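Field: COMPLEX_INPUT
Field: COMPONENT_COUNT = two
Field: RESIDUE_TOTAL = 1144
Field: MODE = joint
Values follow.
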Amino acid sequence: MTETPAMLAARHAPLIADAIAAVETRRHWSPFRDSPSARFHAPGAPEAGRAAFNARLDRRFALDQPGITGWIGEEVSPYTRRPLGISYPQSDPAALIAAAAAALPGWAATPPEQRIALCAEMALRLYAVNFEMAHAVMQVTGQSFTQAFSGSGPNALDRGIEALAYAAKAMRDVTPEARWQRQFGAEDVVLAKQYRLVPRGIALVICCASFPTWNAYPAMFASLATGNPVIVKPHPIAVLPMAIAVAACRRTLADYGFDPDLVTLAVDTRAEPVARRFIDDPAVAIIDFTGSPAFGGELERSVTGKLLFTETAGLNAVVLAGAEDPAAVARAVARAACLYSAQMCTSPQNIYIPAGGIQTPAGPMRFDDVAAAIIAAIDEIADAPASAAGIMGAVQAEASCDIVRALEARAGQMPGARVLRRPRPYAHPDYPEARTMTPLVVAVPAGAEALYGAEHFGPVLFLIAADDAEAAIDEATTLGRRHGAISSYLYATDPALIDRAADAFAGAGMNLSINLTGAMWANFAAAYSDYHVTGLNPAGNACLADLAFVAGRFRIVQNRRPALPQDHAHAA
Amino acid sequence: MTETPAMLAARHAPLIADAIAAVETRRHWSPFRDSPSARFHAPGAPEAGRAAFNARLDRRFALDQPGITGWIGEEVSPYTRRPLGISYPQSDPAALIAAAAAALPGWAATPPEQRIALCAEMALRLYAVNFEMAHAVMQVTGQSFTQAFSGSGPNALDRGIEALAYAAKAMRDVTPEARWQRQFGAEDVVLAKQYRLVPRGIALVICCASFPTWNAYPAMFASLATGNPVIVKPHPIAVLPMAIAVAACRRTLADYGFDPDLVTLAVDTRAEPVARRFIDDPAVAIIDFTGSPAFGGELERSVTGKLLFTETAGLNAVVLAGAEDPAAVARAVARAACLYSAQMCTSPQNIYIPAGGIQTPAGPMRFDDVAAAIIAAIDEIADAPASAAGIMGAVQAEASCDIVRALEARAGQMPGARVLRRPRPYAHPDYPEARTMTPLVVAVPAGAEALYGAEHFGPVLFLIAADDAEAAIDEATTLGRRHGAISSYLYATDPALIDRAADAFAGAGMNLSINLTGAMWANFAAAYSDYHVTGLNPAGNACLADLAFVAGRFRIVQNRRPALPQDHAHAA
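Field: COMPLEX_OUTPUT
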C-alpha cells in the first residue's frame, strides 16, 4: 500500500514532537548519528556513497526542471585542483518563477502537518545519502571528509528539523477555527470563524560557497513548511551539494504526489550571476541569504517589501584572561582556529591576551608563553598529516591564501607586529595537490586595527596584546558591534570577570562561549540548543532558529459567518 | 506596603493567562465592559471623566519629559469647530532618543514578566480613566461618544492586551537556561547555557488621526513588553488621546520605580512634521505606522535595517449576491457605511450588486430595489438625529467632505452613473456646529473604476452593477490585491458561491465577513478573535495580532560554559 501524505504526517509526528521538545528544553537531541564511523551505518554505506559521488563526475547532473536553456558548471576541487566536470541545467529564471507560482496553490492548500512531514522525509532521505553528500561537500568546499559528513550532514539536517519544529509551533499556534459568542444588547451573536494559513509567495535561498547546506536546510524547510515554494541559488563554485539536496526534495515531493517544482535549482556562473533576477521579481517574497558581508549588506540596505533573512560573517574574538589549564585552552583555541582552515563563520581571528599575561593556578603566564602554547598546539595539528587533513581540510579559494599572504607581508612592515608563525601548507596524505594552508599567527600591539580590525577570510590569528582583560572585552565588543560577530570566546578564571564579560557581550548582541576546552570544538554550534546569530550586530539579521525565523513566513486570512444552529448546540 | 514589580507581575499573571487562552481559542473574552452605560461603572465615573476632560482644555498638558523646547497644539473639535486650546510640550527629538536610550538598559534587565505586568497595569489604569479618554477621542476625531468610549477604549485596550499575550508567548518560548549534555568520543560534555532576551532598540509608534489608540496600544505594548522604549508620535490633529495615554504609562512606570522616559510623546505640527527625525535615526530600531497609504507606502519602500509594521487603508468591498432577509442585509450595509461616517479602516465603500438582481427567498430582487433598501436604511439612521449622532459622529477633516462633494460632481458628469443619495449633513442634537455628512450613494455601471477604483476617505458608497456575483468577486479581489483591503463582506445564500468566495478572498489575502446582520456591526473586529490586516495586500504588512507581530521585537543572546559539578547532580 502506498504511503499517503496523511500517513507520512502520522509517521513523522513523533519526530516533530521530539524536535519541539528539544528546542523548548534546549537539551541535546538528534535523530541522526554525526560520525562517519562504519559501526553507526549500514554495511556498505560508505562505499555506496563514494561510488554515488564518483558516478556524478564528468557528466550532466540529471534534474528535470522547467525552462532549461543550457548546461553549466565550474566547480573545481580544492583537493585535486581539477574540475569536477559536472554540468547542471541552467533554467530561465522566469520559467523557475512561473513553475514555483504554479505549484504554490496546491502546496498552500496542503495541510501544514503534511508539509512539515514532507520536509522531515526530505531530511531523512538526505541522511540516507549522507556518505555521497559528504564527498560532494568535501570536494567542492574543501571541508575534511569527517567535517563534511557531520557538519554538512546531520548537523545541518538538524538545523533544518529545528526550523521545522518552529514552523510547527508557529502554525499550530493558529487555531483553524473558532466559535465566538457575545452578547450585543439583547442579541446573542454566535459566529463561526475560520483561519487559514497562507504562504507569502516564492522563497529564494542563496547559499554560501563554504558551508552551503547548513544554512540552506533551515531556510528551505522553514519556507516549504509554511507553504512557500523554494528556489535554491547555490554559489557557482559549490553547486553539487545543493543539486543533490534539490534532487532529493523534488523526488520526495513527486513520490507523494506533489509538484516537484516546489523546489528548483537556479545555477549560475561567477561571470554571469543570476540572483538579482530573483531578488527583484515581485513574486519572490522571501529571501534567505548566506554569504559575503558585501552582498548581504547590499541586500540589507536595499530590499524592501520582502522578508529578508541574512547571515554574513563577523569578526570573532577570543578574550584569553585566565586558564585553569593553559595547555587545554591553547589546544582549544588552536583547534577552533584550525578547523576547516578558519573558513567557518564561527572561526576565531582575534585573540586578546593581556600584555601582562594571563591568570593561571601557577601564577601569571606571560604573553609570549601563551602565544608559544597556542602555536605549539597549532603545530601539533599541522605537523601530523592525518590530523591536519581531518581538521583543516583544504582551502576552498586561492583568494583566501592570497589574503593571508598579503597579511603576512603587511605584518612584516608594521612596527610592533611580529609574525610568530608563517602560513605554510601541509602535505595532505591523500591529495598531494590539495590547496592547504596552516594558520598565520601574528602578535600585534593593541590598536593595530589596520591589521586585525576587519574580518579576513582565511587562516590567520592575531594575538593582540591588550592592556588588560577589561580593555580586551571592551575592544572585542566594540569591533563586534561595528563589524559583526557570530561566535565569541572567553577564557577566564575570575568569576566576577566572567559575569562582567557575559553582560558586556550580551550588551553588544554577541553570543559567548566561556572556558570551552576538551573534545567538543569550541566553535561547535548545536542545533536545537545554540541560537546561531543574534541579529543584533552586522553579522546577520536572522537567528537559527527562533520563532521570528518562521513566524512571518506565513500570514493568516480569516472568514467569519453566523454559526449554524447545530454549532450552537455542539458548543453548549 | 508598596506593591513591587514582582508583586504586580503576580497580580496580573491571571489576566495574561486569560488573554493567552483567548488568543489561542479565539473565543470572546475581555476584562473590560465596552458600554458607557452607567450601570457598568462606578457612580460618578461619567461625570468625573467629563470634568477631567474639560479641565484639560485651554491650557498646557503637563508632561514632564526631557528636552522641552516649546509648547504647541493645533487640535480643533469637529463637533464645535473650535480649537481645544491645549498645548503640548514639544521635545527635541535628539533629547527623546537620548532619554529612551538611557532608559533602555534598565528596562532590558527587567524580567519580561514584570514588563508585561507593567503594560497590563497601564491598560487597567487607562480603562479607569476611559470616560475622560472617550471625551478626548470624541473631540479630536469626531467619533461618537459611544464609539469613542468602546472602540477607542476597551476594544483598543483589548488589542493592547492581545499583543501582551503574544509577547508573553513568544518570550516564554525561550527557556532562560538549559543544561546540555552530549558525548564527544569518550568525553561527556556537560554545558550550562543561558539565553537572554535582548530588545532591539528604540521603538517609534506613529499614530493615525481618526482612530489613534486602537493601533497604538498593541504597538506600544508589544515593544515595551519585549524591552524596547517607545516614542509615540501622534498625528498633530489628534494628540490628546495619546498624551493621556503616554502620561498614564509614564506615571505607571514611575510608580513602580522605572524610568518614565521609556514612554515619551513626540508632538509636531502639520507644517513641521517631525517623524523623519526619528525614522532616520539609527537608534530607532522598530517603527509601527498607522496612517495614510501614501506615507505608509513610502516607509514600506524605503525603510531597511529596521522592523516596520504598517497599517494603512484599503478599498473595502461588499459583494451582495443574495439575502435571506434583504431588509436586514440593507440595514447591515447601511450601518457599516454610516459608522463614524465611513472614516474607519473597515468601512465598506464598493457595494457590488448583480445587475440582474440578488437572490432572495421571495425570488430575485432587482438592483434598484436593493439600492432603495440600502438608501432607506441609511435615511433611517440619518434622519433621526440621535441615531445619526450615535452612529455617524462627525467628520474629522473638511478634506473628507471635499472628497465626497467632488465625487458627487464627477458622478453627475459620468454617463451611466446615478447619484441616488446626496451627501447632506445631519443636525447633531448636541453640537449645532458639528461637521456632519451623511453618505453619498452613487449607482455606477461595472467598469466605472474612475470613480470607485480607489479608496475615498469619506462617506461614500458606490453601488456597482456587476455582471453577476462571480464577476463581482473577481473585481473585488482584483482591486483588493491592487489597492489593499482590510475588511470585505459577502452576502449570499448559495453555499457553493460562499465557498468559492471564501477561497477567492483568501487567495487575494483578504479577510471576509459573510452574512453578518443584526446587532453586531458587520465591521466590528474583535480583539483576541479577529485577525486584523493580513499583510498580504497593500493595506498593511502587519497583523493585529499574531506571533509575527511580536516575535522579532526581541532577540536572543546566549552564553554557555562547562556546567559545575553540582549542575550535573541536579539534572541527573
